[in-house]
């Protein structure tokens, strides 16, 4: 377990990546969303492990990438902020294929006990080449993620719908302003 590894999860299109960029701008270590990197690689290679073609294959690739991200993050000092996590990918695999990966992976690879969630925010939601699903699907995914994180015993903090700078301030204040320490 690493109390330095902080998850930003929640609704697709809720502002996670923008918040991650703000945290990086402030000097914090960040890890980009595995799913978007899997999609980019699959699109570049003509692969089929895309959430709209093969959600289970996509989730398996995202799990592998999230595990590699955790290993690489161990060498980084202070807080490390993850745009989504291994838990998100395992929840997707369980949803898509019924494979019981969530409990096994979620217990073996712990993060900071507080997870920060971006709630559904229709005013900023938009599709793009990597996010093809609609808002209703994003809200359903959000519900599954809330259940997944609660089921693993994480404390959830729903980030307010504020400017990115104020959201970052809220998140850092909730962490107590500490720089993060190894555990």
From TrEMBL:
It comes from the Bacteria. The lineage of its organism: Bacteria, Pseudomonadati, Pseudomonadota, Alphaproteobacteria, Acetobacterales. Coiled coil: none annotated. Pfam families: AAA_28. This is AAA family ATPase. Residues 6-167 form the NadR/Ttd14 AAA domain. InterPro entries: NadR/Ttd14_AAA_dom (IPR038727), P-loop_NTPase (IPR027417).
């Amino acid at each position: 377990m690493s109390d330095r590894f902080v998850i930003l999860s929640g609704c697709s299109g809720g502002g996670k990546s923008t918040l991650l960029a703000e945290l990086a701008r402030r000097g914090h270590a960040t890890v980009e969303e595995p799913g978007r990197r899997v999609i980019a690689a699959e699109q570049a290679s003509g692969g089929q492990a895309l959430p709209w073609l093969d959600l289970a294959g996509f989730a398996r690739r995202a799990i592998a990438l999230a595990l590699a991200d955790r290993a690489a993050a161990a060498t980084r000092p202070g807080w490390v902020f993850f745009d989504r996590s291994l838990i998100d990918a395992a929840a997707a695999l369980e949803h898509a294929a019924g494979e019981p990966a969530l409990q096994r992976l979620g217990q073996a690879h712990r993060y900071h006990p507080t997870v920060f969630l971006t709630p559904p925010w229709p005013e900023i939601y938009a599709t793009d080449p990597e996010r093809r699903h609609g808002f209703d699907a994003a809200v359903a995914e959000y519900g599954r993620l809330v259940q997944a994180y609660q089921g693993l015993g994480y404390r959830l903090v729903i980030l307010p719908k504020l400017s990115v700078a104020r959201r970052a301030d809220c998140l850092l204040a909730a962490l107590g302003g500490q720089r993060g320490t190894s555990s």
